[in-house]
Prior knowledge:
Layout: H1 8-27, E1 46-48, E2 51-52, E3 55-56, E4 63-64, E5 72-76, H2 77-82, E6 98-102, E7 110-114, E8 130-134, E9 137-138, E10 152-159, E11 173-179, E12 187-195, E13 199-209, E14 214-225, E15 229-230, E16 237-238, E17 241-253, E18 258-271, E19 277-281, H3 289-301, E20 318-333, E21 336-354, E22 363-384, E23 389-412, E24 416-440, E25 447-468, E26 471-472, E27 489-509, E28 512-523, E29 543-558, E30 561-587, E31 590-617, E32 620-639, E33 645-647, E34 659-670, E35 677-687, E36 690-691, E37 702-703, E38 706-716, E39 723-730, E40 738-744, E41 751-756, E42 761-769
Keywords: Cell outer membrane, Ion transport, Iron, Iron transport, Membrane, Receptor, Signal, TonB box, Transmembrane, Transmembrane beta strand, Transport
Signal peptide: 1-31
Domain TonB-dependent receptor-like beta-barrel: 310-732
Amino acid sequence: MTCFIQHPAVRLMLSASVCSGALLAAATAHAQATPAAAQGETAAEERAPGFEEIVVVARRKEEQLQDVPVAVTAIAGADLARQSVVSLSDLTRTVPSLQVLPSAFSANIPRFVIRAQSQFEPLFSQDPSVAVYFADVIQARAHGLNGAMYDLASVQVLKGPQGTLFGRNSTGGAILIVPQAPTDSFEGYVATELGDYGLRSFEGAVNIPLSDALQIRLSGRTYAHRGYTPGIGTGVRYDDADNYSLRLGVKARLGDRLTNTLFVTNFAASENGTAFKLFNARSTLSSTTLGQLALGELASSRNEPFHSVRTNIPADSTDVKTLTIANTTEFDLDDVTIKNIFGYRWVRSLTPFDYDGTTQNQYNGTVNLRGNQYSNELQISGSSFGGALEWIGGGYLFMEKGTERQNTLLDYRPTFIQNAQSIGRVKNESQSLFAQATLKIPGLDGLSATGGLRYTWDQRQIARTSFNNGNCALLTADVGGTPLSPCVRQAGYKADAPTWTLGLDWQISPDHLLYVASRKGYRSGGVNQRANIPAQFAPFEPEFVTDYEIGLKADWHIGGGTLRTNLAFFHQDYEDIQRTQTQTVSTGSSTILITRVVNAASARVRGLEADVLWSPIRAIQIRGYYSLADAKYKSWLVPIVGGGVQDRSGFMFANTPRHSGGGSILLRHELGGNAGEATAQFDVYTQSKTQLSDDNILPEGINPGYTTMNARLEWRQPFGQPLDLGVWVRNIADKKYYTSGVSVAGAGLGYTVKTIGAPRTMGISARYEF
């Protein structure tokens, strides 16, 4: 492993962690079994009537949500099921500032937006703006992440730059998916959902304590339904689901001080894929043979049902498989804890795309991605001076290798035709050292100061092969170049940078926490994976976000009830923004459309998040939340063909609603005797308009705002049985809305296609615990 490490200090630390891990493993044969204590449980503690506290790890230690001076939303595993959160995209309607959207390639490759920070493409050569972790292990590629959404302890969403404590730097935030760890009790559950569109969902878990020192947990889920969106004339129904996942958890307590927890999770999906509905086409397409036919289909589609498409993507064309291993070894030395987190992830996916959204083969293709990643993190944490100083430090190593093959057809004859095949082989490496400490300031009761620093070394290597119409599309020069022979070009990127955290928090009372914080995070630079001419292989640099945040977490006791108000106000300075720009390039006798990543702009993002929860009595719980994301470019100048520049400083940020929010009401009623409890929950989500593309192709690139409503009725523990029965309706009003999409208009020729939100669905559910 150490052959990939550049920095001597990181090499020494992480080599030691691997060696110590081997010694700890060897010691297991001689360890004396002791009674296991519950670890990482989110069993709630009643802090106020009607509110159950969730344990979060936003600062890499277990703390109650209301005690953490960080903007974070957390949902316990049991509440995920009750709020009908079955996929990551469902978090959009319950987490302030978070958008989870299907990417241009598949709903199984989601795109994340937090506080206006997002990334368009899931390429090996670009890191995401929002990092996703499963069992503390980074999921570098978004493929198959929906497979983790079952048998969970919690989902935690951290807002703002994460540049100190988490393995990979990110500018928008982090999503922590925490699986349910094995416990020392024989227990488990089975659950099912049945509904319209042929919905069949089955999941379950069984926890088996083999001894006081060893427990295992087996869990899994299958999820399938017919597609919501039929293809006109094809018989294929898109926006379907057909996937399954299995998970093994093993927890071993190897003596009084040593614990090892292992998770192995796989996921597989074979589906028809995302529906791309043609929303608009440029009139200039009439100059092309297939464009004339496409314009005719556009006219016809406007008289067809909203939930229908004219795409020609074949059935079962989307195939995604992943395997994730997360192993955490923890050694407790009273005031000091040593923790080692090893991770491995394997990804295979084949996904189609159809950017013309018609039955014509004018702009479509496939992406075949294969990759492996390894990570290892060594943490040393503890407390000093009687608990007045809490600290953590360590080192981190990440390695990833992947190959992406993309076939793209653009048939704009007689203007041009591009039948392109490209292969990108990418190797990514990152190492870092980090430390953070929180000091309770002497003499000032309840006041604490936090400081943290991380230094990161990043490196990328890329080997690109590209053919167009059977000829090499890589050129020897930017102007008048000849094709390369052999047709492969290599390029690299290397950079290092510090990031930091500063904060001050005041625990005014047990129920009131006020904090201020400033953090700096970045998204790594790299090499353009779609480059064709030498200048396009020039590396793009990291983008940086420095934020300033003030927040209040407070519980107010009113009569016999409690009102919780969590508020956060933030300002971000956003520099060296990475943007993908499209242009046409001549390669001898051919013309091709290419995209290029550049550090294009600077911006500022201001906003606020308000999350209010009120429980006047236990039988009633009312929630409302709101997010403002006011994103504005300071400068963005783009060169245009023929000379001059285009000023894009007035453009909208893509996939960023300025306003979003929602609310819910939960009613509980005890039925008397042992008949159980009846509950009714109603929730609503709304957001303002969004722009599909950073290029702001107007007006067709605008997605209007929308509002959806959902409801759920449950009968819990009828007649004393450990059973919950439910009936639910999602999108009650059958709102017709778009979630995301793609606008492409190279050379004045192009389309806008959009992905469609799910229609009204309804079903029943049952969950039995034992």
